[in-house]
Design brief:
heterodimer, A: alpha/beta, Rossmann fold, 9 helices, globular, B: alpha/beta, nine-stranded mixed β-sheet, 8 helices, about 40% strand, binds adenosine-5'-triphosphate, binds magnesium ion, nucleotide-binding (chain A), AAA+_ATPase (chain A)
Chain lengths: ~250, ~425
């Protein structure tokens, strides 16, 4: 699905990703944890192709294609989805028109017919229900005035409607109450079909109780410093990242 | 001398109704006016060439029905080419609401007609002397009128018309008034409305100036706000051959709050001129104005935003921003802020910018697979659509949104 080899990337003048390797196979769920400022969100932006995020070195292969050669929208059309840590508000564009445009762009890319307004509405209503957002959200501006938790649920609603091959969830659990966490986790789990893959960026074990990962990676200072199974997340929960600092000093010495 | 104006003055002399003494004063002023040219400040960027020697019939027999708006249960009052065609006696009005024709003498009509002064440029005076057809809406103190009151004003083809709307909201009253104007033929229509809003009253107001083609439309909405009153107004305008609107918001009492959103969408070759005047005469008032324009090929928009804060108007908060998007190199905007601030303890912001695309919003749309071209169109239209989404009346917003979107898409195609 996704192979990242020795990735180095910078934002403006600062190199943030420094030699990152990762291999994700179809159907797998990988959790990425790591201290604040480690580069987790940056990795998502680099993979999605955000302007200003420059790859200095390395390769990324996505289902046989060179991901780094593609435009942002082409990456999305090829099946890459990023659920944002901080989704942007777009007051003058309604969720409805935005999602209809988006769903149809993906369908077109997959060689499917565009949905009629009625078909789209039916699908949108179901997705709304699944993430527990009231229907009038569709009429409002994209994320406009949504609470933190509502924005996260909106991202998951998009995930459900767009059916990507690989979804990167950047802290989709932060700021959620217990019920909303369940809603988000159920939304993600409903999309697991043994083919689709997920990268779940989180600070907390509690999300991983609901979305069980196959692998857990620790990202620190721009690279993956440790990988393991679900038990690694529990270790982090218990003892934090203090051990990272020591390892780092050891490296310098 | 303009032949049209000479003819107006001639016709005015023949008008004889209960407002004649008031009209006579206006006529005297009108006679002193010279024909506005490039050096007349209020008409600097808007040529009146198309009106100067205009000669159109002043009556028609046209009939028209108020366009239905889904989900809007309004009290409809209809003018066709300046004739009030609604039967006011047949209206089933809620308690606290009185609607009269301007032909019926009333103290309220006289008071509003003479005391809420429009920015009296030439056409305001023309309307003063010639608008014999009009509607007087009176909302009693403490009354809340749930059903919106809609004044529909059609201008058909080959006709000149003048209409007036006078509205009085008593203390604590609450109402929604929609001025819904349209016309596509070769016509001249002046339509002025005055609103006298008493203490603690609340007015939700809309003005849709949807004139197109050869239509010439000159008008204004003028609001006088008393203590603690509130105004929420939205104006949506097309350009037509010539559309000129003056909106005056006068804080005549303390602690009043006004919000004024406006958006204009100009198809190729249209001309639209909006003069907005915010007068803070008393302390502790707030005004927020958002003006947004999208201007098509060879179309021209004029936006003049004046904020006048009088010496006594301490603790005023006034904000005005104007953003314009030009769809082609042939599109034109003249935007001019005019700030006159005579009080020292005020907050006042006035900005005019050419709209820029929010890079983060663009990136977000792209990550959802939408092509760049389409994403830009959505964001560009979005900044006008924001004014529609901000309208408190949902039925109106839902009716207007697809109409404006269609107009925008046509403009894109032709630019
Ligand atoms: N535009 C920028 N210019 C300079 N530095 C930046 C820029 N954007 C991000 N950074 C820096 O890059 C580093 C990585 O940021 P990133 O957002 O990827 O961290 P993160 O691992 O997602 O952290 P968190 O857990 O807090 O979300 C941080 O030190 C941040 O300050
Ligand atoms: Mg982050």
């Amino acid at each position: 699905m996704l192979t990242i080899k020795d990735l180095h990337a910078r934002v403006e003048e600062k190199t943030i990703i420094k030699g990152l390797n990762l291999e994700i196979k179809p159907g797998e769920v990988h959790a990425i944890m790591g201290p604040n400022g480690a580069g987790k969100s940056t990795l998502g932006y680099v993979l999605s192709g955000r302007d200003g995020y420059e790859v200095e070195q390395g390769e990324v292969n996505f289902n046989g294609a060179n991901l780094l050669d593609m435009e942002v929208e082409e990456r999305a059309q090829a099946g890459l989805f990023l659920a944002f840590q901080y989704p942007v508000e777009i007051p003058g564009v309604s969720n409805m028109e935005f999602m209809k445009e988006s769903v149809n762009a993906m369908r077109k890319a997959r060689g499917e017919d565009e949905l009629s307004s009625a078909e789209f509405l039916k699908m949108a209503k179901e997705a709304c229900k699944q993430v527990n957002l009231p229907l009038d959200f569709l009429k409002r501006g994209v994320n406009e005035g949504f609470s933190g938790g509502e924005k996260k649920r909106n991202e998951i609603m998009q995930l459900i409607m767009l059916k990507p091959k690989l979804a990167i969830l950047d802290e989709s659990d932060s700021g959620l109450d217990v019920d909303a966490l369940q809603v988000v986790a159920n939304g993600v789990n409903s999309q697991r079909d043994g083919e689709r893959s997920f990268i779940v960026v989180t600070h907390y074990q509690r999300l991983l109780d609901f979305i069980e990962p196959d692998y857990v990676h620790i990202l620190a200072q721009g690279k993956i410093v440790k990988s393991g199974g679900p038990e690694l997340a529990k270790e982090v929960e218990a003892s934090g990242y203090a051990w990272l600092g020591q390892a780092d000093e050891g490296e310098k010495a | 001398m303009s032949q049209w104006l000479a003819h107006v003055i001639e016709r005015a002399a023949a008008v004889d109704d209960w407002l004649s003494p008031v009209r006579a004063e206006a006529l005297a002023k009108l006679k002193e006016q010279s024909w506005p040219g490039r050096r007349t400040e209020a008409w600097r960027y808007t040529s009146l060439h198309a009106v100067e020697n205009l000669s159109l019939p002043t009556e028609s027999n046209a009939q028209a029905e108020a366009p239905a708006i889904k989900g809007l249960d309004a009290i409809d009052l209809v003018f066709v080419d300046g004739r009030l065609t609604s039967d006011l006696a047949a209206l089933n009005l809620p308690e606290g609401l009185t609607i009269r024709s301007l032909t019926d003498k009333s103290d309220i009509a006289e008071q509003v007609f003479t005391q809420v002064k429009p920015s009296h440029h030439l056409f305001g005076l023309v309307n003063d002397v010639l608008a014999t057809q009009g509607i007087v809406i009176e909302v009693a103190a403490n009354a809340t009128i749930e059903r919106p009151i809609r004044v529909v004003n059609f201008a058909t083809d080959n006709v000149e018309s003048h209409t007036r709307v006078l509205v009085s909201l008593g203390d604590n009253a609450k109402a929604t008034v929609i001025e819904h104007g349209s016309g596509t033929g070769h016509s001249l229509n002046t339509a002025f409305a005055e609103y006298d809003i008493a203490d603690n009253a609340r007015l939700e107001h809309y003005r849709f100036a949807l004139h197109q083609g050869e239509a010439i439309h000159v008008g204004g909405s003028h609001f006088k706000l008393a203590n603690k009153s509130r105004l929420n107004s939205t104006l949506i305008g097309y350009g037509s051959q010539l559309t000129r609107l003056d909106v005056d918001i006068i804080h005549a009492g303390e602690h009043a709050h006004a919000k004024f959103n406006n958006a204009y969408l100009l198809a190729p070759k249209e001309h639209f001129d909006l003069h907005s005047t915010i007068e803070h005469a008393m302390p502790n008032g707030t005004t927020e104005e958002n003006a947004r324009g999208i201007i098509g090929d060879k179309a021209k928009a004029v936006f003049n935003g004046r904020i006048h804060i009088h010496r006594d108007a301490q603790k005023t908060l006034a904000e005005l921003n104007n953003r314009n998007l030009l769809l082609s190199r042939g599109a034109q905007i003249n935007t001019k802020p005019e700030l006159e601030i005579y009080a020292d303890d005020v907050q006042c912001a006035h900005g005019a910018t050419v709209a820029e695309i929010d890079e983060e919003a663009l990136y977000y749309l792209l990550t959802r697979g939408i092509d760049k071209q389409k994403a830009l169109v959505m964001l560009n239209f979005g900044f006008v659509q924001e004014m529609v989404f901000d309208m408190p009346n949902e039925a109106l917003a839902e009716w207007l949104q697809p109409i404006l979107k269609q107009r925008f898409e046509d403009m894109m195609e032709r630019s």
